[in-house]
Amino acid sequence: MIRRAATRTVEEHRGAVLRLLEGRLAAAPQGTDTVDLVSAAGRILAADVRAPGSLPPFDNSQMDGYAVRTADLASATGQTVPLAISEPIPAGIAAPALAPGTAAPIMTGAMLPAGADAVVPIERAVPDTFFADRDRPGATVSLPSGTLPGDYIRAAGSDIRAGSVALPAGTRLGALQLGLLAALGIPAVQVRALFRVLLLSTGDEVVEPGHALAPGQIHDANSTLLAVSLHEAGAEVVRTRILADSPDRFLAQLREDLARHPVDLVLTSGGISMGAYEVVRLALTGEGVQFLPVAMQPGGPQAIGSVDGIPFLGFPGNPVSSVVSFEVFLRPALGAVTGLPAPRPELAAVLTAEAQSPAAKHQVRRGRYTAPTEPGTAGRVELVGGPSSHLVHALASSNALVHIPAGVQTLPAGAEVTVWLLN
């Protein structure tokens, strides 16, 4: 006879899942991958990256204008000084030295010539356009006096100096960070290996999408829901379909999969409740896995432990229960131990209609959140569908999870609740 375990709170089970994953990474730390910059998008940097050179690598012009020696413009303030026009300096060439008494037309980003210590923007020159015949003998430009050294110059290393830390280990790599590495000339980067999950779907009644249903069968939504959720959370998913025809076959197939696929976590959906044919419970009771209720709706039945030293989590079989379990327990733990994913945005919103919840359970409802239209006010959230765990259409229509804590039975319209934004 199966005895029912004591009920855990949501916070207690969330802590247990976090400790399970922390224990795995303590025993088997994440490896690393070296990948090109585009492939590194969304990954976590495994080691400090130091700048191999400075940015900018040379002094360059901040503006289109004239490179000058400020000593040549040191006459009384308010006057202009005529200077001979020397060879122009476009971007991408090694600039020739600037002779005293001359001004060199220089383009934005072009290397500052030796001898120059400032740039005068073209708008301040007379004439305020570059000569079409700059090479004609005796061409001059009048520039304002009082120009200071360093004006409109981007100094070498003013962004980052060679040898300094460009990005520290643990940085989540997005377009901005990878753009910096590209600017430094770095073509590839070392990132943490992805957290690997063996995802199993159970149930004789479950049929792959695309196959016809026999009487009493349903299509498997959980594998897609959880595989995509894991992928979006930065995990690598190894998916194997296990038919729940017998506990012995389930356990044997699971061990074959573990021998074939090195993973950090086994995740199942279905087969963990108190029914007579719960294959995961029947197969893994006594194998280091605990089956217990959590005071949450949906997602009350949960399984946690290890199989042959590999962490194991079992989620309920109803699709909404499975997704809520992932969002409440696994996704935050993955973010805490691997750096991926980022926490869901959490904010306050007011209900558009009354909500009912079991007093003893933390209820997680699906909702459509609308941002506030006035500063200093809370957004609004409309509950989508009821609390039942089979309402996949309502789930697909949602953009937020609405949390109603244990101990609350009724919330009136206008009551404030906590929501997690899903997209």
UniProtKB/TrEMBL annotation:
<dbReference type="InterPro" id="IPR036425">
    <property type="entry name" value="MoaB/Mog-like_dom_sf"/>
</dbReference>
<dbReference type="InterPro" id="IPR036135">
    <property type="entry name" value="MoeA_linker/N_sf"/>
</dbReference>
<keyword id="KW-0501">Molybdenum cofactor biosynthesis</keyword>
<dbReference type="InterPro" id="IPR038987">
    <property type="entry name" value="MoeA-like"/>
</dbReference>
<keyword id="KW-0479">Metal-binding</keyword>
<keyword id="KW-0500">Molybdenum</keyword>
<feature type="domain" description="MoaB/Mog">
    <location>
        <begin position="198"/>
        <end position="336"/>
    </location>
</feature>
<dbReference type="Pfam" id="PF03454">
    <property type="entry name" value="MoeA_C"/>
</dbReference>
<comment type="pathway">
    <text>Cofactor biosynthesis; molybdopterin biosynthesis.</text>
</comment>
<comment type="function">
    <text>Catalyzes the insertion of molybdate into adenylated molybdopterin with the concomitant release of AMP.</text>
</comment>
<comment type="similarity">
    <text>Belongs to the MoeA family.</text>
</comment>
<keyword id="KW-0808">Transferase</keyword>
<dbReference type="Pfam" id="PF00994">
    <property type="entry name" value="MoCF_biosynth"/>
</dbReference>
<dbReference type="InterPro" id="IPR001453">
    <property type="entry name" value="MoaB/Mog_dom"/>
</dbReference>
<dbReference type="InterPro" id="IPR036688">
    <property type="entry name" value="MoeA_C_domain_IV_sf"/>
</dbReference>
<protein>
    <recommendedName>
        <fullName>Molybdopterin molybdenumtransferase</fullName>
        <ecNumber>2.10.1.1</ecNumber>
    </recommendedName>
</protein>
<dbReference type="Pfam" id="PF03453">
    <property type="entry name" value="MoeA_N"/>
</dbReference>
<dbReference type="InterPro" id="IPR005111">
    <property type="entry name" value="MoeA_C_domain_IV"/>
</dbReference>
<dbReference type="InterPro" id="IPR005110">
    <property type="entry name" value="MoeA_linker/N"/>
</dbReference>
<keyword id="KW-0460">Magnesium</keyword>
